[in-house]
Amino acid sequence: MAQCLQSVQEFIQDSFVPMVAVLCSEDAEQVTRKNNLNFSELVRPFCRLTSEGHMRDPNNQIQVIKNLKIHVSNIVTQPPQPAAIRKMLSEVVSVSQPAEGLVANVITAGDYDLNISDRSVKASVPWYNSWKETLTQLNTSKSFTATTPWFEAYRESFFQSMPASDHDFLNHYLACMLVVSSNEPQPVEQFLKLSQEQHRIQHSSDYTYPKWFIPNTLKYYVLLHDISEEDEQRADSVYEEMKQRYGTQGCYLLKINSQTLAVASDEQIPDPWSQYLQKSNLQNQELFEDGTSVLMGSKNTENNVIAPKVDGINPSVKADGVPNNFETHPLQLDHPSDPGGSLDGLDDTLKNTVQITDGKKPSTVTTHGACLTLNDHDRIRQFIQEFTFRGLLPHIEKSIRQLNDQLVSRKGLSRSLFSATKKWFSGGKVPEKSIAELKNTAGLLYPPEAPELQIRKLADLCFLVQHYDLAYSCYHTAKKDFLNDQAMLYAAGALEMAAVSAFLQPGAPRPYPAHYMDTAIQTYRDVCKNMVLAERCALLSAEILKSQAKYSEAATLLIRMTSEDSDLRSALLLEQSAHCFINMRSPMVRKFAFHMILAGHRFSKAGQKRHALRCYCQAMQVYKGKGWSLAEDHINFTIGRQSFTLKQLDNAVSAFRHILINDSKQTASQQGAFLREYLYVYKNVSQLSPDSPLPHLPLPCIQSSATRVFFGHDRRLAEGEKQAATHVSLDQEFDSELSQQWKELEEQVVAVVNRGAIPVNFQPTQYCLNSQTDNFRFPLAVVEEPIIVEVVFRNPLKVPLLLTDLSLLGKFQSKDFGQLQNREEPKSNEKDAHGKATFKNEFISTDVILEFSMGSEETKVARLKLLPHQTGELHILGVVYNLGTVPFVNVVDGTDPSSGLQVDGNLVSNGMSVRGRQDLEIQGPRLNNTKEEKTSVKHGPDRRLDPIITPPMPLLEVFFINFPTGLLCGEIRKAHVEFVNVSKVLLTGLKVASKHPEFFTFGSNTAALTPQSPTSSENCSAYKTIVTDSTSACTALTSLVSPVDFGMGSGNSSLGVIDIPLPDSVLLPGASIQLPLWLRGPDKEGVHEINFLFYYESANKVSKLSHRVLRHTAVICTSRSLSVRATVCRSNTFQDEEDGRNGNMLVFVDVENINTSEGGVQEFHIVQVSSSSKQWRFQKCINPSEDKDAKLTSRERGKLCFKATTCKYQDATSGALGKYTFADIILGNEQIISATTPCADFFFRSCQSSESKKTLTNGYTSFVPARWPTDDVGKIVRKCSEVDLNIIVLWKAYVVEDNKQLILEGQLHVALQTIGKEACSLSQKQEAQEMVLLKLIRPEQPPVPARPSVEQLSHLIKTSLHYPESYDHPFTHKSLCVVPVTLMLSNCSQAGVDVIIDLRHKAISPETLEVHGSFTWLGQTQFKLQLKAQEIHKLQLKACFIHAGVYNLGTPRVFAKLTDQGSMCETSQQNSMPALIIINNI
């Protein structure tokens, strides 16, 4: 049980006190009425004695009486009705509520304040994480005093309202005070009349109530003297006469009202009557405005005096002045037929009670004791002590002696003989029969003079004066007698008081006989059918068990006393049993919560809504957060309903909110009921305070971290052949790698614009912000461009939801970024959000989604739009909407069960909605940079919802016309791009950046090199072509081009950043322009994603936003076309000897059709082969086919041979250095001018792309120190074998598509770098050389340059033998045939070379002898020469033959080394091709 303010001994002593009746004359009542009190009320606060009393027991032993209290009350002649008692007890409990506003009595659990302990235990949700430890600590703490004052008030009122019964005498009157005023004309005669009236009430058969203890009742005569008005001498003389008549111990002169009303306000006198009068008022039903219960007494309401009604004295008197109307009890109802148990009307009838509960004082305050001073208080206290010590206690002592003597004399012989006989035959002990064996003799009555009742009277008298030993002995004796007579009601009363007496005995000579109480309770309840007595017995026993820490037994007893006949009693006892469970040594918290739920349910049935709410709230703290979702839902639902009934609408909304936000396991119908209840309650709340801020709605759940913010306008859709740039949209999935690529592209183009440096305040453009983007900075938006916020809603319920008028809630602060100080007050649309949340038009417009439906357990995305009209700072706070249920139809039996409306078969919608808001609170990423951040949990800001609105900027839209989705590898396709400036601001600085610049071109800078836009014919060539005649076939047509004209090689350009050639470099507002765009299919087959980043700026520079970008991702699927392999070797001819140079080479081009008829390709035609180089050019085709262009069908291969020669500088202008020579070998009917767009563009882009890849791959070479000479040996030697010749193979493919023949064209690039090394057009798989980047070389130890390889050194000297192909010699006339042979040596390097020529045959194997035969060289067989750079030397030799035949003259061995190198570097040079000579014999 809960802790009480009184100990169990004090509680029992105060429950059974001597009863004293009061009879007052009318004049005496007038005296006390000056203080708004009657006499019994006047003395009530002083009825507890402050000093000890003494009396002697029958054995003449002095008995000390401590802390004695008496009960003084007016005589009431009618017993209280049970219905009135029940109603009074209900009101007492209803009025007594937990104190509000006291922090010391509060435990915070969720949203509710629970009154469990007066220790301040603050906790958070879920409160019961460590419930067991917490309650153990509370239980063991000395300061733990969890009280239930409503239970104590109920218990006190219950004991005071118990009617007097015949089987016990504890609440029978022992004495009667007769009070007469000294102002009476004949006070003594008035005393006589009052004495006669008391005698008539006690002994007349007309009055069966009240009950009197003994026939000879003590009469105590009190003369009441009003000091303020009456003559004190007369009062003294009357008192002297009274002492002569009644004795000094039977009368008393009480002087009061020494304070005058005029002086009353000057001194503050304490008011000890208020606490008693409040309880008395409740008992007497005076708080009811409708007068449902009327007390016996006067109807005079002068000065709001309620005292005459309290104790039932009716001022109407007979002619003799003695009151005679004692017919009704204070708890008597006006209408006995009115059922007292009905408490449904309490909400209307307890208005004043609720005011008291809320701590509000009534408007009219009644003061008590206004005419009394502190001296008067002392006089009244002294009067009570004199009455008790000199009148009441001696009377009780005398009565005890008389009863004891009577019992001894009347029971002397017969009882003794009877007892001896029983002991002789039965063994001396009477066996106690069980309740089941006893017959129902509850109605057995003893006469008043019966010795059994005299024993009971003696026991009760001893109990009242705290003589518990004698009382127990008498109760025990009476118990045996009653059981023998099977008087079960009397026996139960004796058992009850015997158990209490045994407990109260000083020194505890015997243990508390709990079985006595159990038997008494069972008897009262089952045999006597008297639940009131059973309840009294249970309350006493439970307190005793609790004092002995037997909480389990106490809880069992209390639970057993619950029944259906009284919901209030059951609720109180269940609550106390719950407190027993948490006061155990090991607190049983779940049992506490369960029984609190049961108590709350019974409180609710009893009409005690506040107590029911409190019980459910206390139980909630145990169930909360433990996974018992169904229990939580039930408790929250009940809390919500009870709070709504009590007009605690905020608590009701909060409780229903908890049901909806948790993952409920309820059925769909139950969830729907919860939702409708919540909406109904919430609607009532909003109607009470329509101007209050919008509260937060629990549904649907918002996944704040998944919120995305998009900055962009509604782009136009593609029309016809137009394809809009993909840019960024909310439909795209976020890819962190792709985002990084876009960031790198933007940094690349920004660096180019800012001359190679990225500004410090550079902020990458982010059009779509989400949880994975960098949201540390404030995003930038543009005025008059929409902002779209994507909010993810989740419906956790199994019932559909309907959101209407959904829009964004925000705060905007206007700001002009051009001025320094222009701070304005922020403007919010929260006030307007009660309707449709829209900003004022001059600031920002918001779009409203009229209906947004969500299915059961559905996650759905809503996209809400804002349109800023001014610059400033915007803060998006959340969303505002109407939450409602989806209207449903139910026409079963023509009735809608939820609304109760007759529909007659028609459709009825019962959807309900309320308006509210939800905030978008996004937690930023966790910080993990500093040590402090790593050791704690700190989160950075997330500012995606706080954009800065910047001034107007240009806005670009890009459309691609006839943009292909599929290409062949190397295919050239022409498309058009349309640029549209849809803003009102001038656009400039348009550029495009891409990681694949070799994929596209906008043409060269010079208009002369860019062909005009072709007609719309599908077969028009994308190249610039010229029809050629037959004379130019197979010979090269050359032209000289500078790479700068094609955007290459310029100092301020960067790979991948291309200027778009706009007219005057600007695009006017609203203007559009179409530019040609040439595309070339990537050389690698497959699907390619190619990113375009269009960069542009505003003509008016804005500090916040310097530029804008537009993104486009092109997806191209490429198919295989041709594979080109090429090799180059030196030519043996020296046709250019006259110019001192030796620049002839042979180029072999191997072309294979690797297309497997993909895309309907039938055949490829090689229409032209061009070369591009700074040093070399094609001269002619050596093996032209008869059909000119080579046709290759699937899997066919062809080989072409070309002669290449060095470029002649005199053929070019003085600016030829650094320019490329393009030479076209035409294999078809028309020349494709390769030096113009688009052929040259793609050539230069592919060259630059390959060079950049080489730079990245070989990036470690940059660590080589610069002090090493650039013209070292290795470079000179490598230069000899390097070619640097690029081949462009132009082809046409014939494709059949939709029964139409199309001609596709394209070009493939092959870069020849080294003599003898094959090059391929297809990108070879690169070896993984990234690890080389990790190789660091220390500068103090420079790397030794790699020695040139033997293969590289073998290309220093080019040799050629000049001789007649056949030679006729008459061997018959002359046996030796000598043939002159010229050996030509050409130095291919840029340095001097020492050459050694050895003509001796190196006969190693027999095969060589067979080949050479008898051929030999004549003359000098070994030469040593020194050739200058690029020098050609002729050496005359003689070959001698002795037989006719075929001989190979290519036997000279040539060794060469650079002039400055040692002899160890001599390397054998490559032999020439076999030089065969035919020697004929004539």
Structure, explained:
The protein is built from 32 helices and 57 strands. Strands 12, 24, 26, 28, 30, 33, 38, 40, 42, 44 and 45 form an eleven-stranded antiparallel β-sheet that branches. Strands 14, 16, 17, 19, 21, 22 and 23 form a seven-stranded mixed β-sheet that branches. Strands 10, 11, 13, 15, 18 and 20 form a six-stranded antiparallel β-sheet that branches. It has 1482 residues and is of the alpha+beta class. Helices cover 28% and strands 25% of the residues.
| Overall morphology | rod-shaped
Count of runs of 4 or more consecutive helical residues: 32
Global structural class: alpha+beta
Straight-line distance between termini? 147 Å
- Compute the CA-based radius of gyration: 59 Å
Determine the mean pLDDT: 78
**Residue share in β-strands:** 15-25%
Low-confidence stretches: 101-115, 117-146, 285-363, 412-441, 889-909, 1007-1019, 1259-1271, 1326-1332
Largest sheet: 11 strands, antiparallel
- Percent helix range: 25-40%
Number of strands: 57
